[in-house]
Amino acid sequence: MATRIYGASDDLIEFDGDVRGECGCYGTDKKEHGALVVCSDGTLLEVKYGKGGDAIWGIVVMHSGELLDDVQRCESEDADPYSDVAVFRDGLKWAYIATKWERVR
Fold it and tell me: Is residue 51 a contact partner of residue 44, using CB atoms and an 8 Å limit?
């Protein structure tokens, strides 16, 4: 079953498919960065609310793993969902989310 990852409300990240559930992003410093989503295929996503200053969830692919198929872009607050959507092919085993993270340079 394919997996979709997307934002909902203004503080939730949803997972539908092989990986199912939702995670709160209450502690995310939305001005600095969003939440980091780490997937079993090696994909790294930054998921952040407020894309372009609008009430839209944006997804930035930091690293594309072998199962990431597409990121469907959203440009309207009136869309359902009002979020970019990361779409994975069958086989994703797990995902982790971090609301506080820092890149080591």
Answer: no
Give domain limits for the chain: 3-98
Sign of CA dihedral 77, 79, 5, 58: negative
User: Both ends of the chain: CA-CA distance in Å?
Assistant: 36
Cα–Cα distance between 22 and 38 in angstroms, integer? 14
Cα gap 24→74, rounded to integer Å? 21
Contact 57, 82 (CB under 8 A): yes
pTM of the model: 0.91
Per-residue pLDDT of 20-76, as tens digits, reads: 999 987 655 555 678 999 999 999 999 999 998 899 999 999 999 999 999 999 999
